[in-house]
Amino acid sequence: MKTDPRVFILANTDILAPPHVPEIRLRLASEAHDLWLKTEEELEAIGLPPPFWAFAWAGGQGLARYVLDHPDAVRGRRVLDFASGSGMVAIAAAMAGARTVIASDIDPWAETAIGLNAGLNAVTVAVRSDDAVGLDEGWDVVLAGDVFYDRAFAERLIPWLAALARRGALVLVGDPGRAYCPTDRLESLAVHAVPVTRALEDSEIKKTTVWRFVG
Asked: DSSP alpha helices (H): ranges in the chain?
C-alpha cells in the first residue's frame, strides 16, 4: 500500500452528516476535496482503489434510514452489512441495538474508514475484508446497500442472498433503481426520496426502495 489510509482519509475528507440519516456522522469527500476530482489513474498512482467508502450512496442512505426507523429489524440480532463502504448501514444497525455488527468490504481502505466512522458515532463494528459472497455464518440479518450496479456482481449475489433468505435470515436491500436489482425476488418495505449529489448520480433526488429478499 503506497499511502497510509488513515492519514489520507483524515486529510481528504470532512466529518459530514448524510442528508437522509443526519443522526450519523461520517468522514466523506465533497466537491471541496481533491479526492472528488482525482481520475482512476491518479488514484492508482497513490495505491488507492476507487473510494466508494468516501461517499454516502443513495441505497445505503435509504437502508440506514429504514434500520434506524425500524430498530426491531436488528435489535438483539447478529448483523452482517455487506459491501459496507463507509460503514453507514453497519453503524445504523449498531445504533439500533444489534447484538453484533460485522461490516464486510473487500477494499482494505474501507476497513480504516469504517473504523474511523464507528468511532465518530461511538459504536462497535467489527470489520472483515475477505469475500463474504457464498458464506453463511449464521447471521440473523444481512444488509446490502446499493450492490446491484454490475451484471456479473449481481449474478454472484442473487443466489447467495436468496439462499440466506431461504435459510431464515432477514435479507434487506437498499436500491435506488440500479439496472440489475432482482425486483422479482424482492418485497418492497419502504420507499425513500434520498438527496444525492448530481456528480455521483443522474439527479439530485434518488427514489430508493428498501426491499426484503424473499428467496
From this structure: 5-12, 34-37, 40-45, 58-69, 88-95, 108-120, 151-167
**Residues 36/24, Cβ–Cβ less than 8 Å:** no
pLDDT at residue 42 above 90?
no
Query: For residues 20 and 80, is the Cβ–Cβ distance under 8 A?
Result: no
What lies within 8 Å, CB to CB, of 157 at 6+ separation is 133, 144, 147, 148
In terms of C-beta density within 10 A (0-12 exposed, 13-18 middle, 19 or more buried), how is residue 159 classed? exposed
Please report the pLDDT score of residue 87 as a whole number: 98
Q: How far apart are CA 13 and CA 73, in angstroms?
A: 31
Would you state the pLDDT for residue 39? 62
